[in-house]
Specification:
Layout: E1 6-9, E2 19-24, H1 28-35, E3 36-38, E4 49-56, E5 63-72, E6 83-88, H2 92-104, E7 108-109, H3 114-121, H4 127-138, H5 142-152, H6 155-179, H7 186-219, E8 221-227, H8 233-241, E9 259-265, E10 268-274, H9 284-299, E11 302-308, H10 315-324, E12 329-334, H11 344-350, E13 356-358, H12 367-379, H13 394-415, H14 420-437, H15 444-452
Parallel strand pairs: 1-7, 8-10, 8-11, 11-12, 12-13
Antiparallel strand pairs: 1-2, 2-6, 3-4, 4-5, 5-6, 9-10
Helix pairs in contact: 4-5, 6-7, 6-14, 7-13, 13-14
The structure holds guanosine-5'-diphosphate (GDP) and zinc ion (ZN).
Length: about 450
């Protein structure tokens, strides 16, 4: 159990210039009291109340900042320790000065994630919730943030706990059977365990299906834009990003470096990569670009394949279309503002069932349709995602797969008439794998590793 008192700036400076310093630990109220000058000392105020006052430099008695101090006594706090939050108003320099003064008077600077770690260690939240707090801090879109909030509220935890309960009930049947072998219920026990195990397996499968969407929300859809030189790849990237980070040029083949950019398409984060056109070339510099394009295509979640409305379909286009059919691709016919030279019928016959959108990036036409096509592909029309439980953490996915394997072994064991005490081992393993998700029986070094990825002050 931690016994020292920690402090850190827990919000970054907003537009209003307010920053909050959070102090947590048994001495937090006493430490702040030594620096605080207000109507009454903080150790005399009721819990969960806010007080106006000044923070003074303990050595010189100089006023460091005017503050609002919130006093929250254990256990009804985030860390389940005594917590004091100091809202500073005077900008970054006074905030730093107040923090310095706290550190000079027995508070220790919190490590990244240490507040959340204490909340976990004191039983306030479980591990999956703590990890969700981290996802929340990092989330790139509102939708991703909502998923993290759901998880932080304990949705995933409750589901995992229920699955563990199911497994425990199976194990309980087994215990009865093993302890009273004369009570000839082997058949019945096996049947009950089979039912429960199949049910658990199904629910884990369902959770794993959500993992793909969870990953998308967390890390963004890795998207590559491919097409012949000059077809409008950089222009499209820029239009989607609403800023000019990629180089746009009239000279074919000049986008040589792979540039990454995050954009928010209807709440779905897209990680866009602009690539040199995929085509055979003798130019060495360009070849590096092309090779990287092939690689990017293989690693992409989404391929945006551009064709030029103003040119006939070329050999390169056909090659690209062939390649693209093996991936999740949206075909975009660009430059529709120019006279048509593209045989759209041929294109339609070549793309199979791939979605096709026509655009004029220059005249900003067709971009809405493109965004809708992306949303259709990745959210499968499901826009009401706020209530869903998503598994979005690779550690959780790994453990779920592990648990699923153990449950599956148990099912096969029962079906092939294995002795039930062998099956028992599989089910216990499944129970333990699930337990690791919520932090039951997790090794201390793993806990340290998880929390060290946090931002300071959380
Ligand atoms: P990239 O080589 O595929 O990246 O193509 P760029 O984005 O660099 O664009 C090549 C040229 O085509 C630039 O001059 C763009 O302004 C122009 N361009 C891009 N989209 C359109 C469009 O929809 N219509 C027209 N007329 N020109 C476009
Ligand atoms: Zn380009």
């Amino acid at each position: 159990m931690e016994t020292d008192t920690i402090a850190a700036i827990s919000t970054t400076m907003g537009e209003a210039g307010i920053a909050v310093i959070r102090v947590s630990g048994p001495e937090s109220i006493a430490i702040v009291d030594r620096l605080y000058k207000g109507k009454q000392p903080l150790d005399a105020v009721p819990t969960h109340t806010v007080h106006y006052g000044r923070i003074l430099d303990p050595a010189e008695g100089k006023v460091l900042d005017e503050v609002l101090v919130t006093v929250m006594r254990a256990p009804r706090t985030f860390t389940r320790e005594d917590v004091v939050e100091i809202s500073c108003h005077g900008g970054m320099i006074p905030v730093q000065a107040v923090l310095e003064a706290l550190l000079a008077s027995e508070a220790r600077l919190a490590e990244p994630g240490e507040f959340t770690k204490r909340a976990f260690l004191n039983g306030r939240i479980d591990l999956s919730q703590a990890e969700a707090v981290m996802d929340l801090i990092r989330s790139k879109t509102d939708r991703a943030a909502r998923v993290a909030v759901n998880q932080a509220e304990g949705r995933l935890s409750r589901l995992i706990q229920r699955l563990r309960q199911e497994i425990l009930e199976s194990l309980a049947h087994l215990a009865v059977n093993v302890d009273y072998p004369e009570y000839d219920a082997e058949q019945l026990t096996g049947q009950k365990m089979l039912e429960k195990s199949r049910q658990v397996e199904q629910e884990i499968d369902h959770l794993l299906v959500t993992a793909r969407q969870g990953k998308i929300l967390r890390e963004g859809i890795a998207t590559v834009i491919v097409g012949r030189p000059n077809v409008g790849k950089s222009s499209l990237l820029n239009a989607l990003a609403h800023e000019n980070k990629a180089i746009v040029t009239d000279i074919p083949g000049t986008t040589r470096d792979v540039i990454e950019e995050y954009v928010n398409v209807r709440g779905i984060p897209l990680r866009l990569v602009d690539t040199a056109g995929i085509r055979e070339t003798e130019d060495l510099v360009e070849k590096i670009g092309v090779e990287r394009s092939h690689q990017a295509l293989a690693e992409a979640d989404l391929v945006l394949l551009l064709l030029n409305h103003a040119e006939e379909l070329g050999e390169d286009d056909r090659k690209l279309l062939k390649l693209a059919r093996e991936h999740t691709t949206i075909v975009i016919v660009n430059k529709t503002d120019l006279p048509s030279r593209l045989d759209l019928e041929e294109v339609t016959s070549l793309i199979g069932g791939l979605p096709l959108v026509t655009t004029s990036v220059k005249e900003e036409k067709g971009l809405d349709e493109l965004e809708q096509a992306i949303a259709d592909l990745f959210m499968e029309g499901r826009t009401q995602t706020a209530d869903a439980t998503y598994v979005s953490n690779t550690r959780h996915v790994h453990l779920l797969k592990e648990a699923r394997k153990h449950v599956h072994d148990a099912i096969e064991g029962i079906e092939s008439g294995m002795p039930l005490d062998m099956v028992e081992i599989d089910l216990k393993n499944a129970w333990e794998s699930l337990g690791e998700i919520i932090g039951d029986a997790v090794a201390e070094d793993l806990i340290d590793q998880i929390f060290s990825q946090f931002c300071l002050g959380k």
